Amino acid sequence: MDNFFSDADLADKLLQRKTTIVGTVRRNKCFLPNEFLAKKKLKLSDSLFGFSDNKCILSYQWHKNKNVILLSTMHTQPVILPGEKREPEIVMYYNSTKGGRCGLCHWKVNKKGTVKCHKCCNFLCKDYVAKSVAYCENCNT
């Protein structure tokens, strides 16, 4: 969900209609606690989770002095995936469902630098197509 529309009230209304959301949140939203707005308190790849009723708020430090704040009504546990970046499951889910991402490396791609997957029509980076990979990871099996 776009950060302009992500709000706790909207999340509650959508939950009443049995619809979950995962989206980024702008820093000026009044429902965010001050702990989630501080950029310098977290170290690189650190996460701060907050839970209320059926909502989860996440602050993830992805670069120095840059954090992303996400709101999710779908996730109920603070799951952090293993690896170098220690990315939370919420961030990985958000990136995988967001449009305009490569089906293999999940980097943001534009129309000029991409080729479509032959099976599912997801966009792929030309770097992967040059390595003779013609299908994204979901279709490769």
UniProtKB/TrEMBL annotation:
InterPro entries: PGBD. Pfam families: DDE_Tnp_1_7 (PF13843). It comes from the Eukaryota. Residues 1-100 form the PiggyBac transposable element-derived protein domain. This is PiggyBac transposable element-derived protein 4.
